[in-house]
Amino acid sequence: MDLKSKIQKRSHEIFDEVVAYRRHLHSHPELSYFEEKTAAFVSDRLTALGIVHEKNIGGFGVVGIIEGKNPQSKTRALRADMDALPIHEVNDVIYKSMNDGVMHACGHDVHTSSLLGAAQILNELKDEWEGTIKLIFQPAEEKLPGGASLMIKDGVLKNPDVKYMNGQHVMPQLPAGKVGFRSGLYMASTDELYVTVKGKGGHGAMPQYNIDPVLITSHIIVALQQIVSRIANPIIPSVLSFGKVIANGATNVIPNEVTLEGTFRTLDEKWRDEAHVRMKQMAEDLAKAMGGTCDFEIRKGYPFLYNDEALTAKNKSLAQQYLGAENVIDLDIWMAAEDFAYYSQAVPSCFYRLGTRNESRGITSSVHTATFDIEEEALKIGVGLMAWIGAN
């Protein structure tokens, strides 16, 4: 039996065990930077498998090492994130979150359990592949500054030096049984915008005595869309969205200030920096012209995610060998963000998608929603394909 067949066989044999991992993690989610019990669970499993590992890397990160034949020849890494989101789960399932207001709504329970399963298979078959594999269980993907950046600062890509980085993420738009790849630019950078517009509040019936920050903010929101529609090069994807506006007045009370929060995303670092300057200047100048002031804070987040062409082509070919070409999909650019981007800026990397959708069972909800769930059969591919990519 060849290596691929052995991996496929073992991914089916340990399926129930991996499902149990996933359900345990789903029931016990922990927020970014608080993944202590999740990390302990991972460490306990690696210990039981006899896999050497370190803890508390970049926070609660766990890093395992498996050496195959000729371990000095090359080192590649497999990454899974571990944190959950501040969402109250409404799914009626036996593995529903037991931590009120916290939920694995982005599939990190799937990523962690898949990597644990892949680690078991790779460790069992370590005499049949070459090099060294790092198993990176990462905290805090969901919250700035991002656990990836912290793990890199703690040396996760060193000793031994990582030559290639691979990551897998659920995709509820893809049916279970399929996976997706995109070479080159894939996901956007992300910046958080925190804006305070100040004026002079007063009675709504006497606007002549006030400087209305609500009106100023309205003009700023509309004007800033020019950053994307008229200033950005149309061939550079850009998104500017505001999702939170607080004007704490009343029907007849104009407040003294309005707060505004949003996000800016793009796929070009030079334009990203230019847009920051233009947004801030436009908002401040507009507020001043209308008699108010504007404090425009930009919290720079993750960079854009770039999939190395050669590594992605190789992994896509491996996926076609493992699943059949008809089950490997080409993906488009996606304007969401991922701190895996930090790895992609440091070493050749490939971030691919695992289909988890099952319309016949009503498993169709998007990530970051209170009804997100997966078709658990996808874990067979989540484990097996990760092990197959890791072994090559």
Oligomer: single chain
Our estimate of the beta-strand percent is 25-35%
- Termini Cα gap: 17 Å
Query: What would you report as the Rg, rounded to the nearest angstrom?
Result: 23 Å
Largest sheet: 8 strands, mixed
> Which topology of the largest domain does CATH recognise?
Aminopeptidase
Number of structurally distinct domains: 2
Strands of the largest sheet, in order across it? 1-2-4-3-5-16-6-15
How many E strands?
16
CATH top-level class of the largest domain:
Alpha Beta
Q: In terms of structural class, how would the helical and strand content be classed?
A: alpha/beta
Helix content: 25-40%
- In DSSP terms, counting alpha (H) and pi (I) runs of 4 or more, how many helices? 11
Q: What does this protein look like?
A:
This protein is of the alpha/beta class. The protein has two domains: 3-188 and 304-391, Zn peptidases (Aminopeptidase, 3-Layer(aba) Sandwich); 191-300, Alpha-Beta Plaits (2-Layer Sandwich). 34% of the residues lie in helices and 26% in strands. It contains eleven helices and 16 strands. The protein has helices spanning 3-13, 15-27, 36-48, 108-124, 147-153, 213-224, 226-231, 269-289, 309-323, 341-346, 378-391, and strands at residues 52-57, 61-67, 75-81, 132-138, 164-175, 179-181, 184-187, 191-198, 202-203, 238-246, 253-254, 257-266, 293-300, 305-307, 328-330, 349-357. The strands form four sheets. It has an eight-stranded mixed beta sheet with strand order 1-2-4-3-5-16-6-15, with helices on both faces. Strand 1 (52-57) and strand 2 form a beta hairpin. The chain is elongated and about 85 Å long.
